[in-house]
Amino acid sequence: MQADLLGDRARLTPDDPALVVVEPELRLTYAELDARAEACARLWTEVLGLQKGDRIGILSHNRVEFLEAFFAAGKTGLILVTLGTRLTAPELEHVITDAGLSGLIYDHHGAEVVAQLRERLELDHWIALDASDASDVKARSYAEEIRRLPEKNDWQRTPCDGEDVYCMLYTSGTTGRPKGVQIPHRMVVANAFNTVCGWQLRSDDVTSIFTPLYHAGGLAAFLTPIFTIGGTVVLHAEFNAEDVWRTIENEGVTVTLGVPTIWKMLAESPAFETVDLSSIRWLISGGAPLPQYLIDAYQARGIAFKQGFGMTEVGVNCFAMTVDDSVRKAGSIGKPMPFTEVRLVDADSRDVADGEIGELLFRGDHVCQGYWNNPEATAKSIDGEGWFHTGDQARRDEEGFYYVAGRSKDMIISGGVNIYPAEIEAVLVQHPEVEDAAVVGIPDPKWGEIGVAFVVLRGPMVQPDDSLQAFLSERLAKFKWPKAYRILDHLPRTAYGKVVKGDLREDYLRDTSTDSQEPA
Questions:
Q1: What confidence tens digit (pLDDT) does each residue in 116-125 have?
Q2: Which CATH architecture is the domain 5-189 placed in?
Q3: What is 411-514's CATH number?
Q4: How many CB atoms lie within 10 A of CB 155?
Q5: DSSP-assigned letters across all residues of 355-371
Q6: What residues contact 333, with CB distance under 8 A and at least 6 apart?
Q7: CATH number of 332-407
Q8: Cα-Cα-Cα-Cα dihedral sign, residues 340, 344, 347, 349
Q9: Count of CB atoms within 10 A of residue 204's CB?
Q10: Domain ranges of the chain
Q11: Which of 239, 259, 277, 389 keeps 20 to 30 A from 39, CA to CA?
């Protein structure tokens, strides 16, 4: 099961449009993009002398060369390691050393940090995507090396099987040092096919990608599924609301993915009121609960939202729902994808009943191999029967729809009762005047822990604590209500939209400690 998805699609529909790069403008058919990926593969194997199983890293913003490298991995058996563009030199050094990279491909945005890396470590190959960054004798020019390739004779892709590792994506490190998630060829194929089937993608679908390609969401949420079915990808170098709306209108985008923060910025753009959205079939949001006011704003423009769930280790697309269900079951992530086994279990690994909260487990071809050079972490996550233990808590209703309750590590134990922040957050953001919300557990001498809600409002609110508590009282049991509220201008979030709850907790404890020390 070799995941040369681009090569196989190019064989079937070589002249169909595959890629539109927004800036600098470039349009490629499947045959043309596949030829570029093959040239990258030849550079790796014929010029650099790299072999199947070697690791090569890429530190780059979204651009066509990123796709060339990604699909070259499917042709050669080399393992592509994607690196976050916001990481510092020490953070990158850890990943590069841990992965044992043979070479690093980088763009001009990463030139400064690469200069620092050269002082810290030795690599066999430094490959600059931009000419201005190839002046150092240690660096090769990617474009120049591609131009120098001799005419191919009988170049053949390197045979791979389903368990050969295709790429490695490093976790964010929120629970420790980043770990390399081993994504094999069969996982790439399974995720792509599951998404096509579960989301009912079509060959005439056009998607706009403005999320980072180094992240699993950028690569697997729509890129590989759209190329599998033969649709078209519109690639942005970075996110800009006006550019996204203009491109959606001009290119006839039909489906696309974003996180709530992005959908908020798009809705606040002046272009949102006038852009032609008639091509869109639906939008999908992930990474955090989607506030009700945003759902309402897009519905007013005739656009339906779906919500999804996934993670790097089990594939970023694990659930699906219809457009009608996305309205009827607001807050749900849907039902499991085809070919996806899901369980909800208690602390003793017993299945829980409908309506009860349990840990979310996955099994199937869409699950990773585990963590690179880390058998202990792998054994903790994947049990003897092949179930991946996510650490996420969820519940299932009587119709089979799933709802995320939160991470196990985020669970609040108050008076011996388990409280799940994501469940409360999902209700808070349904309040029409709430823009954003996060709930965090804070130590308490009486209850052990209490929940504190950090809320961003859309405008002034009289007695917000009372208003929010009254809203929750109609929807959640009393023991789940936060014991305190803090109104903020914004929540701290990562580049991919996840709230940094540690910062909220530290700020709250520091503020309350200061308050307690003030003279009466």
A1: 999 999 999 9
A2: 3-Layer(aba) Sandwich (3.40)
A3: 3.30.300.30
A4: 13
A5: TS-EEEEEESTTS--EE
A6: 307, 308, 309, 319, 321, 394, 401, 402, 403, 404
A7: 2.30.38.10
A8: negative
A9: 12
A10: 5-189, 332-407, 411-514
A11: 239
